[in-house]
Prior knowledge:
Elements: H1 2-7, E1 12-22, H2 32-42, E2 46-48, E3 54-58, H3 65-84, E4 88-91, H4 110-119, H5 121-124, E5 130-136, H6 140-150, H7 154-161, E6 166-167, E7 170-171, H8 177-182, E8 188-189, H9 197-210, E9 220-221, E10 223-225, E11 231-238, H10 243-265, H11 275-288, E12 293-295, E13 302-304, H12 305-322, H13 326-339, H14 342-366
Parallel strand pairs: 8-9
Antiparallel strand pairs: 1-3, 1-4, 1-5, 2-3, 5-11, 6-7, 10-11, 12-13
Helix pairs in contact: 2-3, 3-10, 6-10, 7-11, 10-12, 10-13, 12-13
Amino acid sequence: MITRVIEVGTTLGVEEEYHLVDAETMALADAPDVVDEALRLLGDQAQGEISTSQLEVATPVSTSLTEVRAHLERLRKGADAAAQAHGCRILGTGTPPAARWTEQRLAQGARYQRVHERYGLLALQQLICGQHVHVSVPDPELAIAVCDRLRPDLHLLLALSGSSPYWEGEDTGYDSYRTVWFARFPVTGSQEVLRTRAAYDALVVELVTSGVVDDARGLYWDARPSVLYPTVEVRVADTCPQLDDAVLQAGLSRALVRTVAREALAEQPFSEPRPELVKAARWRSARFGLSADLVDLHTGGRAAAADLVRALLARLREDLESTGDWDEVSALTEQALARGTSAAQQRRQVAGHGMAGMTRELVAQTALG
């Protein structure tokens, strides 16, 4: 048992998706050449996405938050250099503030064509970017137990990450409009409690048989066992324009996975809120971010967002101290609570500098300018 706990979370990695915008106008860019340039500069740590106005980067396997930060800084600078070589910049937000979905174009490739054939207009309207954190969980059975136990807390990670308040130039009233937009796909949010790998495998077979997915890669859950790696992939967050927020997501995700894995191996009881309540909590976090009461899925009540985030941090303290991450993660958490989400900052900046000025500030944040 001790060996299995130690192996969980010994490595992690982060994927970030970016929008590509015109360097002068900040309009969405149709820029497939940027992907080619990024591949030349960054190798297999860069790849295209479903739209020609998107770019994705992935850190190498890392063992510490220090490594994650260094890799993300290097990858952001490299991705922005690739973009600038073709008159563009990278924008790390859940949605591009003023772009319209009709301005983007489906990327070439059999995989994306297949998505379009299956989901129709949804594939063409994607226009969203997220951050994914991979945390090593070598035991496939334990990975399912971890995903079961993550369900009550994922919406708090979402609340911290909200960076998509605008859609086609309009204030949506949401901190993470990306979340509700993405929810139109049939397999999103959190799975029901599965308990065993056999139950997970059976569900995948049933969903494939239904025709809604080709394989487990089509399960767009907020956390899922990775198909490609021995990891649990936490996928709930918007892309964060500020590097500190991206590192915070990585630190909290790893500590949460390690903590619930330890609890699972000790066979401790855990909260099993109904799917409807998990969905409601997710919606409320997407709607209000850190600015209102959120749902406490451990008690079924509501409490101030800051109180729930600090309670989660306190629960993770033992693990964060064991990995040497407590000082950094606790400081980044308090920093985020003090200044609010990116969405809140964007609204303040639009009031003072307009949409284009705010977007330029987001580009500067993303590219570490």
